[in-house]
Amino acid sequence: MIIGITGGIASGKSTVSQYLKDNGFFIIDADQLSKDALTVDQTCIQQVLLQFDCSDEAGNIDRAKLGAIIFNDKKAQAQLESIVHPYVIKKMKEAIQNCKEEWLFLDIPLLYEAHLEYLCDQILVVYVEEQKQLERLRKRNALSAEEAKARIYSQMPLIEKKQKANYVIDNNGNRKELIRQVDHFIQGLKKGDILWENY
Ligand code: ATP
After folding, report:
1. Which atom of ligand 1 is found nearest the CA of 175?
2. Is the full-model pTM beyond 0.90?
3. Which one of 1.10.10.10, 3.10.180.10, 3.40.50.300, 3.40.640.10 gives the CATH number of domain 1-25+103-192?
4. What pLDDT is stored for residue 72 in this prediction?
5. pLDDT above 70: percentage of residues in the chain
6. H-assigned helices in the chain
7. Is the pLDDT of residue 199 over 90?
8. Of 108, 124, 140, 147, which is best to mutate to test ligand 1, by the most ligand atoms within 8 angstroms of its C-beta?
């Protein structure tokens, strides 16, 4: 079974993924694959260097230069995504094909925005209310309220993702409450009695 994990910025996805990993589950991390595209995969790297003036002295991608080029430039962001996304999707498909585990998790922050539902059998959304999301994001990234809000509003509203989910983990409580829910989810998986919602 392929289970997508998604949510909003700072909603708790990584915390949930890390806990699942600690409990022996296999997780494919889309953010890590995006980083690999720019640091490991020579085809992507060469394409990026051809399209963007972001080379460092050694001929690698200077992430800071690239970041400055795409910042606030939707066209450049789309261009970069058209290079990185196919690599990420290809790697996830390979992982799905080669997987011998009973469950494989795909941690994909922008799963719904990128329309990647088709890769998953079920989708788990880590949900948090906006006020708490704002607090946690500001604290983690040392952002002003305006900066944090801009990041939250650039994504699909989390409430919409919650409505589309097959399973919701509510991260409005403390870490202990979050882990208790993930434990309950794991037990359900192992016993085969999870109630997946259908939308
Ligand atoms: P992003 O996609 O932005 O990387 P994320 O969805 O993976 O974020 P996390 O990094 O897991 O979210 O969590 C966001 C921040 O909130 C982190 O600093 C994390 O330690 C903190 N956090 C997560 N869950 C809780 C909780 N229940 N109580 C308090 N802090 C929490």
Report:
1. 27
2. yes
3. 3.40.50.300
4. 85
5. 99
6. 13-22, 30-39, 42-51, 63-70, 74-98, 130-141, 145-153, 158-164, 175-191
7. no
8. 140
